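Q: How do we represent a protein-ligand complex in a form that can be generated token by token?
A: Start from the inputs.
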Amino acid sequence: WQRAGYSTDVINEDLIEENEVVTGKEEVHEFKTETKKLLSIVANSLYSEKEIFVRELVSNAADALEKLRHSQMMDQGLDSGKPLEIHISVDQSKKQFIIQDYGIGMTEEEINDNLGTIARSGSKAFLEKLDKDGSGSKENIIGQFGVGFYSTFMVGNKIKVYTRSAKPDSKGYCWTTDGQGSYSLAEADNVAVGTKIVIELRDDCKQFSSKIEVDSIIKKYSNFVGFPIYLNGGKVNTVEPLWTKEKNSVTADQHKEFYRFIASAWDEPQYTLHYKTDAPITISSILYVPERHMEIIGQRQEPGVSLYSRKVLIQPKSKGLLPDWLRFVKGVVDSEDIPLNVSRELLQDNILSRLRTVMTSRVIKWLESEAKRDTKRYNDFFLDFGQFIKEGVCTDAMYKKDIAKLLRFETSATKDNEMISLKEYADRKKEDQKRIYYLLTPKRKFAEESPYFEAFKKNGIEVLYLYDTVDEFVVNHLREFQGLDLVAADSAEAADDPLL
Ligand SMILES: Nc1nc(Cl)c2cnn(Cc3ccc(Br)cc3F)c2n1
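Then emit the structure tokens for the protein with FE6 bound:
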């Protein structure tokens, strides 16, 4: 290889240099006791997984770029002189993780203020107030940047922060700490506008200096962040957050690609819903019904919808977002109203239940409208996914009546594999017929041979055919539809119907 002039070493990766120079005298500051307590909470118990620190730092960097972009729109004064990008570089030999943004940066007082805000609030009061405040108020005590920065203490034993505000004539600073008791702050030269965080990783956190590991973490949580993210010089986030785009500007092809990406599937969605609302809460979502579902008996699918907040993944495959019977739906729900709270994962239940209420009724309406739009296609959907709808009638008391509109049955008046809704049955029943009649039967011909059916046939009264064992539970849970009782055709009650 050498003779042929091919180099065998790794392609020279573009790593972030640490060429800032501390010039001023270091002022050492003692962390306030409250901050120490909070640090230990954040560093030890707050986040479910250590990898979350990547999401938190990327989010802070994205917020800093957003602040710079916004202020540039307001007045020309601010500029970082660099593109609005986030750069991450990892170096296994140095066990180092560096993230740099060319965003708004921090002045000396902002550094102390940001650290102070959290300290001032005090860990106990902070967590209490957060619980109270967490119910959706954006102005809860942690600012835009929150405690995310402290998550670096989960993985680092030494943290250095170089920052320079985009405000004109700002000085560069170097903030450093070992996370124990104190931090130091000094002026520094050669600091780019924005913020660079250098983490020396703990021995048990070496995996965060592996490019492959960090690449997959970024793709998992921050793939839709609104700015390009480079890892050792390579762009990581490629798929754009389709749900934020104007609905009718998104093509079917884009939906197909996006569906395949978020559902890690190869088929195409048979139904697509791009739903945005700002009342009662801001929601921007894209939901898909896959062509086929993979739930063979016994292997329950996990929920298919992930929860984002401002394009950052909060809960992958979120359990609380839709009721279990809708686990076949794939997609993304992004709600800005999720309070930027301590770990974002400590999602307040009432936010989730409010989201679930809005999303569940919207999904039911969506399926109803698809049924109206193309009956044949909906019947095909129901043949494959009907089991989930029936589970919904049996398990979701709140929506039972609405879900019932999605049910479809064969009847004595339909052809094989042709189904009607309960509404269609009610609309074409006999004038003074007070009941919806059904027969539990494994297949059509058994029903038509049944002695009970004779009277109904003679009197031209339509009977639903219930082929599935679960259908019995469905009619027992439903009991009535639009004021008409559901009655078995072979029951004593049916026998005394004056119509027969
Ligand atoms: N990337 C980035 N950019 C900006 Cl503008 C801010 C503002 N606050 N934070 C979090 C943070 C980072 C370091 C230190 Br020291 C304190 C601190 F709160 C930011 N992070």
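The longest strand covers residues 156-164. The longest helix spans residues 349-373.
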